[in-house]
Amino acid sequence: MGDVDVLFLHPSTYVSTSDGEVVRYVAVPMGTFALADLLERNGYSTRIVHVGLKRMLDPNYKVENLIKALEPTLVGIDLHWYCHSYDAIKLADCVKRCTNAKVVLGGMTASFFADEILSSFDCVDYVIVGDAELPMIELIKALMKSTEVSDVPNLVYRKGSAVKRSRRAYLASSEDLDKLTCSDLKLLEDWDLYVRLIHENDVLSPKLKTQGWLMIGRGCSVNCSYCGGANLAHRKIFGRQQPIFRSPEKVAEDLRAFEELGISCAYMDFDPYTNRKFYYKLFELVRKEGIDISSQFLIWSLTDRNFVQDLKKTFNPLYTTLTISPETGSDFVRLKNKGFYYDNQSLLRWLEMLEEEMVPAELYFASGLSGETVEEFNKTMKLGERILRTYNNVVAISCNPLFLEPCSPRFLLPKKYGIRLKFRSFSDFYKTYKYLAEGTVPPSRLGYDTEYLNESQIIELSSKFNEVVGSILEGENLTQHCA
Amino acid sequence: MEFKIEARMPPRLFSKVSLVYSGIGLRYFHTGFIPSGLMHLGKWVWRFYPLTLVRLDKTQEQHEEVLFSFCFIYQSINGKRFFVTQPITFVDDIREGFEFFIENIEDFAKEACLNGVDIELHQVLDEYVSYPTSYTCISYDLSSISCNHDVFVEQLRSMGYKEYVKVWTYGIAPLDDDEQTVCLQDVSPESVSRMFIYENLFSYRSWTLPTLEHGLKPFGTPQIAKFASRDGLTEAAFILRPDLLEFAKKYRTPIPQLYQKTLGKYPFSNLKVVMWLAKDIDTLLASLKKLIHSETLKGFKRTEIAGVEDRLEEVKRALSGVGFRPACYTTILSKELV
Question: What pairing do the DSSP bridges indicate for beta strands A102-106 and A126-128?
Fold first, then answer.
């Protein structure tokens, strides 16, 4: 028996560049903290180690030494985001080479590709498909008692050479989510460094704010063409038809815990209903309890003025922003791709209102949308420029090429969305990130072409957008400077 | 008790004291990114570091924020230096951890091969001091905090710091509107700045940070620049700024300059002469009177003049003579590291 029962390892994405190795996608899924805390409260000792952070602090860091020293019974590796496909498997392999611990993967990518992962990689013993709270408790219980795991809900496992699925299913309810605590970041080693780096990828530079991701609920009500967390994906992977929320009281508790940890800004990215009834209740609680924290609130659809005013009077304005992803400057393309539609005029009126209410906005655009041509993308360029020149309260604006997300509507229905898939299986994602880690150019980075644009065009369009935006901002600084 | 310094600015700072950021990269501030930097000895260093002193209670696994300062790296006439803004304390025992904080800043400066450390401390003498309250691009509403000037000065002196400069700000409610013989002319702020740098014809001038580059001083609109002339000759020049702290407090924003539309229409009460040059004291006073009663500046209830060096006894006397009263003074203490 080792020092911990369950060791959670977070696999960062390593990319080899001419300047050496850089670590990308630092964020740990919020469920990892909830699981570690839940297991602790059920009598199992746990530890979360962020392998990427360890390597940033010490390039010679060897996770093997830690695994050998702790001798865990079970190692949980999150494979929620596809970008960790290679590094999660590499970690699993590393665990197997130095201990007898069992390895379980979880998260949306692992869930979607569970059968393929277990068929292809011996270093992975189990995948939990979908919600993992009850399954994790039952899995560690079974392993500690050396009993069968076939009854563990949502578990995909290997029996001989066959891959089997447990017959028991578990779908977390709002009540189940309320039993979780997602804010005990101290379960993560180097948590204080983590909260400084979470909103950036790989730079150990000083920052004004620290950030924590807030768990508000699960699921989605709509289907954006490119999103691997859309309603369709939640139905397919979790069996969840509609989004569920934690109670405002539990979310407020987490906000309080964040404040006590010295976290300046709560990252709030769960906005599946346009009436936002949940948030009016939450905001009232936050005000009543005097929680002093900022919020980066990601809205999925345009809001009314009431909501903006309520947000402004609730959160500390220092780092509070409203973040929106219009994705495109073409109304036609937005209609084709976004779950929540609004036209450019409505977006501009909304920004105007934000300016009047003195709330800063962050905007994100994308290239590679379905139906997007070079001409349509020019509308994105024009809209971006116009917004930047008109609204000083737009404090961030950028454009990124869309990556193919497993289980997104365009992955599942490529014809409908005018996509030619280059990635179809887990091994495609795995190989791509292996290439990147090894410093070689993968055959495909995005995983698709659209009917109008190929990969390099899609990447180039985003670069062009960011160049134009960069030069406007640079010019602005120079003008301010000389004034 | 154990202390550590974390590079971050806690939101409670803004809850405790209204502040205005008017430095480079206004847009980035809310996103938490430090907007600029500079090359120093072949290495990239950040323009400023938000430093929070934290007290750790290991037995209870708790930590408490104790004090906060911004530290700017700047190119002064005395080489590259660290400039530390007024420390803002969050605890009752203001001496606690202060030495640790300063020693760590010095160590950091030494490691970065900087020539020295300058620390800005304010002593508030009036009920209110308008923007800018600092010689940097971070201004606090000094009326809502204790600056603990004397305590920090004493502690810093014991650590080897010496007074580098003491600079006064004077304020006045409406001046007498007697007939003045100077003419005022609107000019660009750049032309005043240029005159400030290149002209030696002016015996009296405001003190500003001896920085050789942009980035550390407050900047941006709105600002007003004027030349005062007699018989066609420029006798004095001024840059004035409205009190952005009024706006920041009313609308709860640390960056008023992001909202130019509302800012342009805002009825400011206070105005500050932040930069000034004059050939003689009579011209300075005459120009100030003319300035305050000029059409463009009607509606302001109070005017301040900053940058009056302690050694300019005759200017201080003259300002007091026409009714200006000291609003605050700022002591900058320095320590050479090499």
Answer: parallel
Rounded alpha-carbon distances, angstroms, from residue A3 to A37, A164, B89? 17, 31, 42
- What pLDDT shows up at residue A483? 43
For the ranges A26-30, A267-271, B52-56, the one whose mean pLDDT is highest: A267-271
Residues B314 and B253 in one domain: yes
Q: pLDDT of A161-213, one tens digit each?
A: 899 999 999 999 999 999 999 999 999 998 888 888 776 554 567 789 999 99
Note the pLDDT tens digit of each residue in A363-411: 999 999 999 999 999 999 999 999 999 999 999 999 999 999 999 999 9
Q: Which H or E element spans position A115?
A: helix A114-120
Same domain, B251 and B292: yes
β-bridge partners, B195: none
b/e per residue, A332-360, with b = 16+ CB within 10 A? ebbebbbbbebebeebeebbebbbebbbb
Average pLDDT score over chain B: 89
Whole-angstrom Cα distance, residue A222 to residue A243? 10
User: pLDDT, tens digit, for every residue of B21-32?
Assistant: 998 888 989 998
CATH number for the domain spanning B228: value is 3.40.630
Cβ distance of A473 and B31 shorter than 8 Å: no
Amino acid letter at A256? R
Residue among B6, B35, B258 whose CB faces A393 most closely: B258
Cβ-contact B121, B86 below 8 angstroms: yes
- Taking residue A159's Cβ as centre, other Cβ atoms within 10 Å add up to 10
Domain limits at B35?
Answer: 2-165
Interchain contact A358–B (C-beta under 8 A) = yes
A145 touches chain B (CB under 8 A): no
Q: Are residues B197 and B148 in the same domain?
A: no
- Domains in chain B: how many in total? 2
Instruction: Look at residue B46 in the predicted model and tell me its pLDDT.
Output: 82
* Gap between the Cα atoms of A373 and A460, Å rounded: 13
Question: How far is Cα B261 from Cα B245, in angstroms, rounded to an integer?
Answer: 17
User: Does B12 lie at the interface with A, CB-CB under 8 angstroms?
Assistant: yes
Q: Is the pLDDT of residue B176 over 70?
A: no
- B16 — contact with chain A (CB < 8 Å)? no
- With b for 16 or more beta-carbon neighbours within 10 A and e for fewer, the A433-459 pattern comes to bbbbbeeeebebbbbbbbebbebebbb
Exposed / middle / buried, residue A93 (Cβ in 10 Å: 0-12, 13-18, 19+): middle
pLDDT score at B193: 81
